[in-house]
Amino acid sequence: MPVDVLLFDFGGTLDADGHRWSVRWYEHYRAVGGRLEAAAFESRFRDSDRLLASHPTVRWLGFRDTVRLQSELLEALVPDGHALPWGDIASRFATGAEAIARRNAPLLAGLASRYQLGVVSNFTGNLRPCLEELKLAEHFEILIDSAVEGWEKPDPQIFTAALQALHCPASHAWVIGDNPDADIRPALLLGCSACWLAPAERSLPPGLAPTLRIAALPELVPGLEAACTG
Length: 230
What we know:
Structural class: alpha/beta
Number of strands: 6
């Protein structure tokens, strides 16, 4: 089947090798002495996501400022927040994401010479300034931000909007993401091919049959070529 379009998730996909933002924040939080268990931190992180999305300045924030604002929200939400160095936590989080983005930029440039590329992300209305700061935006023809579109993954309408904007049938598109429920399942239901980006040790969720599985984004090119010629 010919491939015309590649649609990428952002957080956990373009800035990490399959590790969600909440997981990475939690690792940095624990590294400086945070005491909450993972489930309790996850709940507070989701609260910080909602507050971030409704913040009056978020639509204009770049990547570093978004991370800084989220760190301030988390500091107020976790019970031991006042005792932790949130500036250091935010810096470590941002530095790690920036390093992966720099690694991925040449890969995306090469893919953009062969395919139409897009991003479909559940984000906070400032996907474009974040990707511009990370020097990734230039590789994509469309950037679909859930807070702007009014639909969130796994709603298939957000993927359909991207495909319509690129004038591409689902059968000629691939979706690449780290979230099996938000990225992979809806893509397959629409008739797209789907590449799941996840660490090798992560178990395949029940009923999930991605077209391709990779552990780092540079594996996409050989995997894509093998899937399309095999």
